[in-house]
Specification:
By secondary structure, this protein is α+β, with helices and mostly antiparallel strands. Helix content is about 30%, strand content about 25%. Helix 13 packs antiparallel against helix 23, helix 16 runs antiparallel to helix 22 and helix 17 packs across helix 22. It is elongated, with a radius of gyration of 37 Å. It starts with a helix and ends with a helix.
């Protein structure tokens, strides 16, 4: 009896001991959990002794991390495949358990099923189950000694075209110049001297290229690409012994410096950009849009890189996604007008924005000084590079999306506010005598006007002669709070241009509210702290063409050129028409500030503006000149131009002929 009881107790003790031994399914589940959590060190702990002899922990962890990072692995999901039958465990034999794996990679989704062998090994704490690992756990195609290779294929970058299908940024066949060493043996110094004279490359760089390890005497050694516009340079180069050409594909900017700030350029991605764009499909060999439309539309233009994941030796494909070419874009820019306005500003620091006054299509965006974006591909001379990098005065600075004091160009807007609020009677003649007017009150100040020819001044007179005193008084009648709020509500001051693809600073009335009567008086004729972008200035004048509604400018070509409205009912149709007639007089009246030179054959309306830039009252400062003008018969062009530092060049009168010349040229052809 005692013996039977003892045997029963021993049976249960043995049974309890057996039940405490881990099951292979349990260990596999733990391994899978660590795999899903990418806890590679802990995964290594569960490998068999035999597996650990083949790969060290450091190599194991590094391999998983490197492969998963290089492949951009996301949404990793590993799971044990459950079976209806109970797993049979035989002493000394491995247990086979199947598992499923899925993940997202650069080359698309990867899914596979695989089988794991678990082996029972004796350890200090007893028997346990361990995973018999090999490289096929990562991908079934991967064999011992093989690596995973990621091969990218570049998409064709989308091109940029203007409204008429003319290229702004295109993929073109260009000539690459190279030297064949055996062809220059006897005349090396002479050839290298001439090549470096004709191309923006140094002799040191050419010699370095020729001395590369891979170069043989009969090899073509590439030196530089040649701008297709430089046909004479190409001809001279090919006349040299040992100098040859070959055709390669390159990004090319047909308008060169005329549209540099508008279009931008592409260049090799930097290490910093590559880190910032991590996960977006860029590689160390990628080109990336920099500045201008190339940057604005980068996502649409660059397309999607193709990727293939394969084994190193057998070249078995694990996953593959073909490249997707970028989208061609058509914008509303007119290349002819862009070039014409750019040419007018050639010797100036200035900017111009041109739009269609009825539709809002952006016809030109110009900034000078400029640079040739092709230089980023074909090379720079030292003089060009120095000019590009010359700080705020340099060619690298875009001006059409920046803010400037508008000067008298704001007066039509002040007139709208005065008329709409009932604070301005357009026919009432103000008594104004002398060149200056001052008023003591909320801070003393003095206002100066251009001419004292008139002593009785109504709204039309004030616009025609650009009378500062008249508009200073008008803004005082309106009041600071109303003046500021009306500019915001009727003309979108302070509003972000979220609808416009090209980043443009929002115009502003003041920094911290209008603080004095003097500031309010100055603001009425575009001084004080009032700031506008040329694009906004152009858009604000569309009010006078559209029965008081303000058009929203746009840049990407639409199937039908229909307007969108930035502000509705900025002015009543009657007040908009009244001011339009006055703006016509600014051009047609012999005393008008925009009269000379006369633009024969076209009827224009517009307003000049001269903005004084000085740090303190009473001191001398620079002047910026403005002219905003549009044609009135079959309206189709509105231009806002601003040129810096015009004080010694006639003020705004320096700007007027430039705008009129470009407008006349364009309107005769369109």
């Amino acid at each position: 009896m005692r013996l039977a009881a003892w045997m029963i107790t021993l049976f249960f003790l043995l049974l309890a001991g057996c039940s405490n031994e881990p099951a292979p399914e349990e260990r596999m589940s733990q391994y899978i959990k660590k795999w899903n959590d990418k806890e590679f060190n802990e995964m290594y702990d569960q490998l068999t002794a035999d597996s650990k002899e083949k790969i060290s922990e450091e190599e194991f962890v590094k391999r998983y991390k490197t492969i998963y990072e290089d492949l951009g692995v996301e949404k990793l999901k590993i799971s044990v495949n459950k079976t209806k039958e109970k797993v049979e465990v035989k002493e000394g034999e491995p247990v086979k358990l199947s598992f499923s794996a899925s993940m997202e990679t650069l080359a698309g989704p990867v899914e596979f099923e695989h089988e794991a062998s678990l082996v029972q090994e004796e350890k200090e704490k007893g028997k346990d189950w361990f995973v018999q690992w090999d490289p096929s756990f990562i991908f079934p195609q991967l064999k011992e000694g093989e690596e995973v290779r990621v091969i990218s294929s570049s998409p064709k970058r989308g091109q940029l075209f203007d409204r008429n299908g003319e290229g702004l940024a295109v993929n073109a066949a260009v000539n690459e110049i190279g030297i064949v060493p055996q062809g220059i043996k006897d005349k090396k110094e002479e050839v290298l001297s001439k090549v470096t004279e004709l191309l923006p490359v140094s002799k040191e760089n050419v010699e370095q290229a020729l001395g590369a390890d891979w170069v043989r005497e009969s090899d073509f050694v590439p030196i530089a690409k040649v701008d297709p516009a430089n046909k004479e340079v190409l001809k001279e180069l090919l006349a040299l012994p040992g100098v040859q050409k070959r055709e390669v594909q390159s990004r090319y900017y047909p308008l060169g410096e005329h549209a540099a700030h508008l279009v931008g350029y592409v260049r090799p991605i930097t290490a910093e950009q590559l880190e910032e764009q991590k996960g977006d499909g860029y590689s160390a060999n990628s080109m990336i849009g920099t500045r201008g439309l190339e940057q604005v539309y980068e996502n649409e233009l660059r397309g999607e890189a193709g990727w293939r994941i394969q084994t190193s030796e057998g070249e078995e494909v694990i996953a593959e996604k073909p490249a997707k070419d970028g989208r061609d874009l058509h914008v509303t820019i007119d290349s002819t007008l862009q070039t014409s306005l750019s040419s007018q500003l050639k010797k100036d620091k200035g900017t111009a924005a041109a739009i269609h006054p009825l539709t809002g299509e952006t016809l030109a965006l110009v900034s000078m000084p400029s640079y040739n974006p092709n230089n980023f591909l074909f090379g720079w001379t030292k003089e060009e590079w120095d000019a590009y990098n010359n700080g705020e005065q340099g060619a690298a600075v875009a001006r059409f999306n920046k803010l400037y004091s508008p000067g008298s160009a704001i007066k039509p807007l002040t007139a709208v506010i005065g008329l709409e609020t009932g604070k301005l009677d357009p026919v009432k003649q103000e008594d104004i005598s002398g060149l200056t007017w001052s008023k003591d009150g909320w801070g003393s100040y003095e206002v100066t006007r251009v001419s004292e020819r008139l002593s009785k001044v109504n709204l039309k007179d004030a616009l025609v002669t650009s009378d500062n005193i008249y508009f200073a008084r008008a803004s005082l009648s309106i009041g600071a709070e109303t003046f500021e709020s009306e500019l915001e509500e009727r003309f979108a001051f302070g509003e972000e241009l979220d609808f416009y693809p090209f980043p443009t600073e929002p115009s502003s009335v003041s920094n911290n509210g209008i603080q004095s009567e003097g500031q309010l008086a100055d603001s009425g004729f575009g001084q004080g702290e009032v700031l506008m972008s040329p694009l906004h200035a152009a858009a604000s004048y569309t009010v006078f063409h559209n029965q008081g509604d303000m058009i929203q400018p746009y840049l990407e070509k639409r199937e039908k050129a229909e307007p969108s409205y930035w502000k509705k009912e900025s002015a009543t149709p009657e007040n908009a028409a009244l001011i339009m007639e006055d703006l016509k007089a600014v051009i047609s009246d012999p005393y008008g500030t925009g009269h000379k030179p006369e633009a024969k054959g076209i009827e224009l309306a517009g307003k000049t503006g001269t903005a004084e830039l000085k740090l303190a009252k009473g001191e001398e400062g620079k002047e910026n000149g403005w002219f905003v003008a549009s044609n009135t018969e079959n309206p189709r062009l509105l231009v806002a131009m601003m040129i810096e530092d015009v004080k010694e060049r006639g003020g705004s009168h320096y700007v007027v002929p430039k705008v009129k010349s470009a407008m006349s040229e364009y309107l005769k052809q369109n």
